[in-house]
Specification:
By secondary structure, the protein is of the alpha/beta class. The protein folds into 2 domains: 4-228, Spore Coat Polysaccharide Biosynthesis Protein SpsA, Chain A, CATH 3.90.550; 235-391, 2-C-methyl-D-erythritol 2,4-cyclodiphosphate synthase (60s Ribosomal Protein L30, Chain: A), CATH 3.30.1330. It is built from 12 helices and 18 strands. It has helices at 33-42, 59-66, 81-95, 113-122, 167-177, 187-193, 213-228, 274-287, 292-295, 309-321, 344-355, 373-376, and strands at 4-10, 27-28, 31-32, 49-54, 75-76, 100-105, 128-134, 139-143, 146-151, 157-166, 198-202, 235-249, 252-255, 258-261, 264-267, 325-334, 362-367, 380-391. The strands form 5 sheets. It has a 7-stranded mixed β-sheet with strand order 5-4-1-6-10-7-11, sandwiched between helices. The protein has a 5-stranded mixed β-sheet with strand order 15-12-18-16-17. The longest helix has 16 residues, at 213-228. The chain is elongated.
């Protein structure tokens, strides 16, 4: 009986997805995306070996996701998707235990056993096969922002993965195509360019490729239906943060990550950015995950003079680790001076960059205390913040 391996390509950086953690290592209903993908093939009786190709810089995330699954050592990917596939193919060939291979995107974690079986079975009749779905939407040709015609969709299919090959045939195809492989958008395209006949079998309706946060939420909803029969409603949590720092002699303050020339400075163990401190606490509060002091104790000398951006990025990473996303943040700075208005857009842009959000989801505003209290006497600056987090289903601990 022919021996079949699965090659999971997980070397991409996921730039369209955004965030510090690549999409293949993000949590989907509490489980890393890559782990779900790998398990789909490990559990299939037709697959004898699962080989993963990764970016070596991602090794810590990889180990956390699949270290207990006893997989072969991961293969270092290349600069392109094609180079990564080829590196994986050569490793499988060197192992000598496979005649056939299924190549699959790590970002398709919901692949089902029936689709895998259809691809494997089709390899009995030819050297190459891909899973695909017929196009059902009306297709328009667009030029300069205007529809200029309708494309006949008959015979058009949307290619997916897995894509299956006789191992020797796809390796020969890569060798034959050479540098032209860079123009191919998938492995089936390389097989076609080399003259191989590529069969098509129908893929699953619920085998989406995770490219955006919305895709991740959608996949969680599909899992909820498959596993529980109902769609769990999205959960929204809101956290509140407050911080204040004393003004001391100096020449500038840092507020929401922006340095502003001023006749005083804020005093604190770190850079005393009250805006980012309040926002960090708001995010941690929405997670019920302590406060800024519990994560970055002021008694710890390593945080002396630290850039508060590190605190905010840490809080954002905690959100992603909980399988949630930040939907919106709002910061109010309370001071008589300096004037915040001229710097508002820069502050919003800085916060948006740190949280990997669109600036439309970041609000920064300011108010005074009508010269009342410590802020009115220009003795210090305070900040209040709120953060809204969205969970695709019930949040942690529910």
């Amino acid at each position: 009986m022919p021996r079949c391996s699965a090659l999971i390509v997980a070397a991409g950086s996921g730039q369209r997805f955004g965030g510090e953690v690549p999409k293949q290592y993000r949590l989907l209903a509490g489980t890393p995306v890559l782990r779900r993908t790998v398990l789909a093939f490990l559990r299939h009786p037709a697959i004898g070996r699962v080989q993963v190709v990764i970016n070596p810089d991602h090794r810590p995330w990889y180990d956390m996701a699949v270290d207990d699954l006893a997989l072969p050592a991961p293969v270092a990917g290349g600069a392109t998707r094609q180079a990564s596939s080829l590196a994986g193919l050569e490793t499988i060939a060197a192992a000598g235990d496979s005649d056939r291979v299924l190549i699959h995107d790590a970002a398709r974690p919901l692949v089902d056993a029936e689709t895998i079986a259809r691809v494997v079975a089709a390899l009995d009749d030819g050297p190459a096969v891909l899973a695909a779905r017929p196009v059902t939407d009306t297709l328009k040709r667009v030029a300069e922002g205007r529809s200029v015609g309708t494309v006949d969709r008959s015979g058009l299919w949307r290619a997916e993965t897995p894509q299956g090959f006789h191992l020797a045939a796809i390796r020969d195809a890569y060798a034959a195509v050479g540098a032209a492989a860079l123009a191919a958008t998938d492995d089936a395209g390389i097989a076609e360019a080399a003259g191989l006949s590529v069969a098509v079998v129908e893929g699953a309706a619920d085998n989406p490729k995770i490219t955006t946060e919305a895709d991740l939420d959608g996949a969680a909803q599909l899992l909820a239906v498959a596993e529980g029969g109902i769609v769990a409603p999205a959960e929204t949590r809101t956290g509140h943060g407050y911080d204040v720092h004393r003004l001391v002699p100096g020449d500038a303050v840092i507020l929401c990550g922006v340095r502003i020339d001023h006749d005083a400075a804020l005093s604190g163990h770190s850079d005393a950015d009250v805006g980012l401190h309040a926002l960090t606490d708001a995010i941690l509060g929405a997670l019920a995950d302590g406060d800024i002091g519990s994560h970055f104790p002021p008694s710890d000398p390593q945080w002396r003079g630290a850039d508060s951006a590190r605190f905010l990025v840490h809080a954002a990473d905690r959100v992603r680790g909980a399988g949630a996303r930040i939907a919106h943040v709002d910061v109010t700075l309370i001071c008589e001076a300096p004037k915040i208005g001229p710097h508002r857009d820069a502050m919003r842009a800085r916060v948006a960059s740190l949280l990997d959000l669109d600036a439309s989801r970041v609000s920064v505003k300011a108010t005074t205390t009508e010269r009342l209290g410590f802020a009115g006497r220009r003795e210090g600056i305070a900040a209040q913040a709120t953060a809204t987090l969205a969970f695709p289903a019930a949040g942690p601990g529910q």
